TrEMBL record:
UniProt keyword annotations, A-Z: Pyridoxal phosphate
PANTHER family: CYSTATHIONINE GAMMA-LYASE, TRANS-SULFURATION ENZYME FAMILY MEMBER
Record's keyword annotation contains Secreted: no
CDD domains: CGS_like
Modification type N6-(pyridoxal phosphate)lysine: residues: 230
Species of the source: Aquilegia coerulea
GO biological process, one term: transsulfuration
Protein name from the UniProt record: Methionine gamma-lyase
Pfam families, per database record: Cys_Met_Meta_PP (PF01053)
């Protein structure tokens, strides 16, 4: 196939950057190609066409033969490539420091498409035992039943366990989340990449929890996937995903005969791509404030005697590891977990926080300007049985909080404290 993504390249000659060449995500976004509107508008126009005309009959044959493609502004059909979606893909490639990217209709479609491209029937995946529930169900139930692709789940902190799980010649992908959902475990990206690459295995990292904070491709990952629905969107109003990686991979996924993206059709709507492209320039500012408030709240919660999990706290097991890998100035992530031990206590606290003090909202997802709270074991990790949740470190009373930035920090903290007073009055919490 021809290079369908040549115009998505972020760095000269489509070469992967080294650590020495790396610029932080905000700087990379600032120098990415800016697409102007049809009549010179500072914002690009939306290309809403499903299909595209050609000026010469021969061009159609050349496009279907793979001799012409999006890299030369030649488009066939919007399920294949759309100019507006291509522009968003350029931004995502810049954000993650990869040669190319392709934006999809959801995060799960991005994950499943990559895995189906890299793995064939009878092959094998090694994955973290702590994953988003939907991904866990995909690997545990759906793939074995429909594709004969099986997965071994491991503790990514145990590198010997990872090595032992890899079956040479059969394992094709090592998969984990940059910050695990919901336990916020941070994996050693460079070392795990070395282990995988020594055995000829591709590394795939879901960076949904940590855009701007971590850049897995810079640290050695082959493919980075996102649910753009979360922080990158920021509005809790769009479902979308992205695949970021080598141009060769994205090209293969767009192949007319063998490409998972082309043939499965997880197409992003051009109007969605336009909206998202307008939000990415503000992502750095939003992430810094999400992360700043999360660190302040986690520090204060700890002082009150609350069991809080947050990678920015010095006692977090991977605090120093995260500091060594993270992009400077973006903090330690915008999510923290409060462990109330039982689901009953967790639900009581969330009820007070939403319905009595207005600290946040009981809802799944993350990256919204309001704080979103959910009890992971009975919601976003409910696809995992009790034993799987225990292995993953998910307690029945674990509340995942995506810290927002609306209102002032002190105003929101006062609302949190008022809810704690109600918990004390009920005899469900005792301050230190």
């Amino acid at each position: 196939m021809a290079d369908f993504v040549g115009s998505v390249a972020v760095f000269p000659n489509n070469k992967k950057t080294t650590a020495a060449e790396w610029v932080d995500p905000e700087s990379a976004l600032a120098v990415a190609r800016h697409e102007f509107g049809e009549h010179g508008g500072v914002n690009m126009s939306i290309e809403a066409s499903a299909t595209f005309t050609v000026m010469e009959p021969e061009h159609l044959r050349q496009m279907f033969a793979g001799e012409l493609g999006a890299g030369r502004d030649c488009f066939i059909y919007s399920r294949h490539f759309n100019p507006t979606v291509l522009n968003l893909s350029r931004q995502m490639a810049a954000l993650e420091g990869t040669e190319a990217a392709y934006c999809t209709s959801s995060g799960m479609s991005a994950i499943s498409s990559v895995l189906m491209q890299l793995c064939s029937s009878g092959e094998h995946v090694v994955a973290s035992q702590t994953l988003y529930g939907g991904t866990h169900a995909l690997l545990t139930h759906f793939f074995p039943r429909t594709c004969n692709i099986n997965t071994t789940f491991v503790d990514m902190r145990d590198h010997e366990m990872v090595k032992e799980a890899i079956i040479e010649g059969k394992t094709k992908v090592l998969y984990w989340e940059s910050m695990s959902n919901p336990t916020l475990t941070v994996a050693n990206v460079p070392e795990l990449c070395r282990i995988a690459h020594d055995k000829g295995v591709k590394v795939m990292v879901d960076n949904t929890f940590a855009p701007m904070v971590l850049s897995p491709a810079r640290l050695g990952a082959d493919v980075v996937v996102h649910s753009i629905s979360k922080y990158i969107s920021g509005g809790a109003d769009i479902i979308a995903g992205a695949v970021c990686g080598p141009a060769s991979l994205v090209n293969s996924m767009m192949d007319l005969h063998q490409g998972a993206l082309m043939l499965l059709g997880p197409t992003m709507n051009a109007k969605v791509a336009f909206e998202l492209a307008e939000r990415i320039p503000h992502l750095g500012l939003r992430m810094k404030e999400h992360c700043r408030r999360a660190l302040v709240y986690a520090t204060r919660m700890k002082k009150l005697g609350i069991k809080v999990i947050y990678p920015g706290l010095e006692e977090h097991p991977q605090h120093e590891l995260l500091k060594s890998m993270a992009n400077q100035e973006y903090g330690y992530g915008g999510i923290l977990c409060v462990d109330m031990e039982t689901e009953e206590k967790a639900n009581k606290l969330m009820n007070y926080l939403q319905n009595f003090t207005q600290f946040g909202l009981m809802a799944v997802s993350l990256g919204y300007h309001e704080t979103l709270m959910s009890c992971s074991g009975s919601s976003t990790s409910s696809e995992m049985n009790s034993k799987e949740q225990e292995l993953a470190g998910i307690s029945p009373g674990m509340i995942r909080m995506s810290i927002g930035y609306s209102g002032t920090l002190e105003q929101r903290w006062h609302q949190f404290e008022k809810a704690l007073v109600r918990m004390q009055e009920d005899g469900l919490f005792k301050r230190i």
